[in-house]
Each structure stands twice: as C-alpha cells, then as structure tokens.
Amino acid sequence: MKLNPECIRDILFDIESETSFGKPFEYEPTRGKITERLLKYEPEEVFYHIKQCELNGYLYNVSWYMDPSCMVIDLMPKAHSFLSDIREDSNWAKTKEISKKVGSTSLNALAEIATGVISSLIQKQLGLQ
Questions:
Q1: Which of 12, 22, 30, 68 is most deeply packed, by most CB within 10 A?
Q2: What does the H/E/C string look like for the chain?
Q3: How far, CA to CA in Å, does 3 sit from each of 64, 93, 124?
Q4: Distance CA 67, CA 118 (A)
Q5: How far apart (Å, rounded) are the C-alpha atoms in residues 117 and 119?
C-alpha cells in the first residue's frame, strides 16, 4: 500500500485529541468506533498507516486485536514534534508541496521537510532571511 500523508496526519491528530492520562485511542471499525476524521478512509488503510506510525516510532504502546481493531496509548515525542510543525494548514501545504518536488513522502522526509519549513518561517520572523 502506498503511504498516504493525509491519512497519517489525520490519525496523529485523532490520537492526540482522543488520548489523555488513562484514556487510550481506540479504532474499532467493526463496532462503529471510528472518529469522524477517519471515516473518509477504508479501515485497511487506517490500520496500515497506524502500523507505519508505530514502526517509525510515532506511537507509544499499540495493541492489535483480531476483530480487527487496535488501541494506542499515546503519541511519542517524535509525533508531537511532527504535529506541531504541520498543525497549521499552510505549513502542511508547503510541506506536501516540497515533498512532491523532491519525490519523497516517507515519514522521515515529511518530518525533515516540516522542520525545514518551520525553521525558515522562524528565520523570516527574526529577520534573518
């Protein structure tokens, strides 16, 4: 399956908004437990992207169930940093635009590009550019 950056962003935003101390994020499509933001994706796509986030160190303690469903305890600091960089739609649009130009939509590339976009904006605000 091809990596869908929009799906990753939506998943991370939902996990961020749903989790708190003692309250995990649960994705249970067979029981109708799907956040509104994730309804636009097929369950297989969501599961795939949750797994990719887990494998890339963005998620803390993911439990997988056979029904199929999963539970995520929280985001890792790496995911919080990435979300901070892409939270604004304009920063996300610039990140995606650059990623298309360089031909990479890997999580690592997206995170590096997003960091570069934010660094550039900071330099402009400081009058360094």
A1: 12
A2: CCCCHHHHHHHHHHHHHHCECCECEEEEHHHCECCHHHCCCCHHHHHHHHHHHHHCCCEEEEEEECCCEEEEEEECHHHHHHHHHHCCHHHHHHHHHHHHHHCCCCHHHHHHHHHHHHHHHHHHHCCCC
A3: 20, 17, 32
A4: 40
A5: 6
